[in-house]
Design a protein that fits this description.
The chain is α+β, with helices and mostly antiparallel strands. It is built from 9 helices and 20 strands.
Length: 415
């Protein structure tokens, strides 16, 4: 056995390798992954540039596809083969007789040694019988057989008889099958890492976008539907009318929702997320009893006044950072719209109005800083944003291997 084989088969190395894979998986759980939540990964990188350079060097933002994580899984598979599956078939569980029990004529001289050897066994007992040796041996054999034991060795020794018997033979295959299952699961993970992919494709409602891993495939979201819990902006359910085309060839279409993906030859399209950008279909401005519905960036006259109003841009999650307006996320947590009021050739400074805080108005200065203005006589009554649908596209060619390995693991554990 080579020095490398000895290291791979050592218990310490097994424990270290298992802990290293577990720790790496935990890091991938806590750090946002580009393949799953690219916007969160980008936000993290912008917030922590120094750490991001270090994380990027080890490819921690795409950890499960990195070469070193794939390498760890490969080493684990080799380790299991060397440690558990090297010898075929698995140990049948037959235990040899102690060397003190001999079959030749010299055995009589070592009777005391035989008795001592048997008494050293962890499970042992003693009883007396009036039967002859042959009859007692026959009764013992029948009792073992009745108990489900299989007798592998049956021979006489001086002044006695000896048996080797086992039962639950299938149980001894359980660990072997479970370890084969682990190798199959690891192989499936390696196949996914090499030939599979996961990517997030954000598509605006009514728009389309090409995939990165399959550039000739284009995703169309004809309609995005979302329902909120009453009185909140918390989504209750959301879905997308999705079409997929390859060039000019339609591949498939389906209304997808959470846990109800579209499958095209093993490539699955999941409804993963949603959000709002800076675009909207319309906003409604309330002025007393009058309401004005405005499209984006198009001036419209306010009835009965010399003013025209223009709705400029939407921030779905308005926040203030260093005195300036900033969008905290793509969720509709605190929607705000920037307005301009025009009188002839003149227009006011930008005014930010808030759907959830109708009495609040912020004025944006020339340098971009904000100051609070008196409560205005108008309010932002409603916003109809243009939403995007976050479609997660996943292709896992190792899925069948992982599924088969999982079933084998269950069978091995039960055995």
């Amino acid at each position: 056995m080579t020095a490398l084989t000895k290291v791979l088969r050592s218990v310490r190395f097994n424990i270290f390798l298992g802990l290293l894979i577990a720790f790496s998986s935990a890091v991938g759980t806590f750090l946002p992954q580009v393949s799953e939540t690219p916007e969160k990964a980008a936000a993290f990188q912008a917030a922590y540039p120094q750490w991001s350079r270090f994380f990027d060097f080890f490819n921690l933002f795409d950890l499960y596809q990195s070469w070193w994580f794939m390498g760890l899984l490969g080493v684990m598979a080799v380790d299991i083969i060397l440690c558990k599956l090297w010898n075929l078939p698995p140990d049948s569980g037959i235990v040899a007789m102690p060397p003190e029990i001999m079959r030749d004529a010299e055995a009589e001289k070592h009777l005391s040694q035989k008795e001592a050897a048997l008494k050293l066994k962890p499970l042992q007992g003693e009883l007396a019988t009036m039967l002859t040796l042959d009859k007692a041996a026959a009764v013992a054999r029948e009792s073992l057989l009745a108990g489900g034991y299989r007798i592998h060795d049956d021979f006489a020794v001086a002044a006695g008889a000896a048996f080797v018997a086992t039962r639950h033979g299938a149980q001894r295959w359980g660990s072997y099958i479970a370890h084969i299952a682990l190798v199959v699961i690891l192989l499936g993970s390696l196949v996914k890492g090499v030939w599979g992919f996961v990517e997030m494709v954000p598509v605006m409602e009514g728009g389309s976008k090409a995939m990165e891993h399959k550039p000739d495939w284009e995703l169309f979201v004809d309609k995005f539907t979302i329902a909120y819990y009453d009185g909140t902006r918390d989504p209750k359910r959301y879905s997308s009318q999705l079409r997929v085309k390859k060039g000019e060839e339609p591949l498939a279409s389906k209304t997808i929702a959470v846990n109800d993906p579209l499958d095209i030859n093993g490539v699955r399209f999941y409804q993963a997320s949603w959000g709002a950008g800076g675009m909207f279909k319309s906003v409604t401005l309330g002025l007393g009893e009058t309401t004005v519905t405005l499209p984006q960036r198009k001036k419209q006259k306010i009835p009965g006044t010399p003013f025209e109003v223009e709705a400029d841009v939407l921030m779905p999650h308005f926040s203030v950072v260093d005195g300036r307006a900033q969008n905290a996320s793509l969720d509709l947590r605190n929607p705000a719209v920037r307005f301009f009021f025009h009188v002839g050739p003149h227009k006011t400074r930008p005014l930010w109005l808030f759907e959830a805080h109708p009495q609040l108005c912020l004025v944006e200065k020339n340098d971009g800083s904000l100051e609070q203005a008196p409560s205005p006589p108008f309010r932002l009554a409603a916003v109809d944003p243009v939403l995007f649908s976050g479609i997660q596209v996943a292709y896992d060619p190792g899925f069948n291997l992982v599924a088969a390995g999982s079933i084998m693991w269950l069978v091995g554990t039960v055995m």
